[in-house]
Structures are given as structure tokens and as C-alpha cells.
Amino acid sequence: MRDNSTLAKLLAEEDISVVHKKVPTAAFDVKRRELILPQWKEMPKTIQDLMTLHEVGHALWTSLDMLDKMRERKIEKSFVNVIEDARIEKKVMNKYLGTIRIFKNGYESLIKKDFFGTSGKDLSKHNLIDRINLHYKNNVGVPFSEDELVWVEKAGKTVTSDDVLDLAEELIAWMKENPESMGDPDESG
What we know:
This protein is mainly alpha-helical. It has helices spanning 5-12, 45-61, 64-72, 77-95, 100-112, 128-136, 146-156, 161-177, 185-188, and strands at residues 17-21, 27-29, 34-38. It contains 9 helices and 3 strands, in the order αβββαααααααα. The protein is globular, with a radius of gyration of 17 Å. The mean pLDDT is 94.
């Protein structure tokens, strides 16, 4: 595994800490300003670069204020995370145009490794928020109904953290009213 610390600090435009830990995936600790990369037996450059760039996006645009509002409003974190991931990755690709291919290649590598656990599974059985996540992680052919495609598009159009929180709340309410979007927990997990 090569050291992406300097690159991460330059792109994040601050002196964040970059640490390698035995964790299942990368993360960014917004409070401690710590970018965490997993220590995998094999970490291809494409995946390490993808994870670094993704977490730099959180360093740049995911605020403590947003997370506090999420808790205050009692919005389910998994919904906020999926929509926020789509927002920050779009922002990274717009700010650093050379990263588009890195995201594409990195997600292709993760999909080949079955990182998302979807190999051999019927994606139509997954709940809507999980399918939105897979869509924005470059999984090809994720099925959506016409009503669900509206939410996929809305997730791709979020600009601010308040947009993310508002959309997460709206999507949770819509899914409760549309149980067919909830998927089959026995088939999707």
C-alpha cells in the first residue's frame, strides 16, 4: 500500500491525518479530521485512490453541523450517507476533473471483488436506498421503477448538506408509503 497522505492533504486543502487501520472500508472522522484507510491484504492502486478521493470529499464538504442536524432531526444515518456520498463524489469529480476515471476504475475493481455483496443476487429485491447507493457506485443495470427513478435523479442533484438532509427525510417518508420500495430483506442482505 502506498502512502496517499500528501495527496489527501493537498486535495482536502488542510492538514488532515491519514491513518491505516484494520477496518472493512475507508471512512472520514469529521470531528477528528482523520481519513481512515483499510489495511487489506491486497489493496490495488485503483481502490486506494478511489477511497482516498471519496474521503477527501467528506473532508471538504461533510460538516459536523450536518451530522448534528441529522441527529437532531432523527434522520436515519444510512439514508443520509448514501445521498451525501453521491453529492460529495460529484463535487470531487467537478473540482478535480482528472478523478472521473479514478472513480470509474475504482468502483469497477470493487464490483469485481464483490465488495458490495451483490454477486448472484437479484438487485430488484434490494430496498430503494441500497439500489440508489449501488447506482451511484457505478453498478450497471440497477433496476428502478419510474416512480423510483425520480429519487435517483433527486439524489444526483443535491448541492448542499441541507438538500441531503431534506431529501433523506422525504425519501424515508415516501418509502414508508410505498412498501414495494422496501425490497425483500431475506433476498437483499
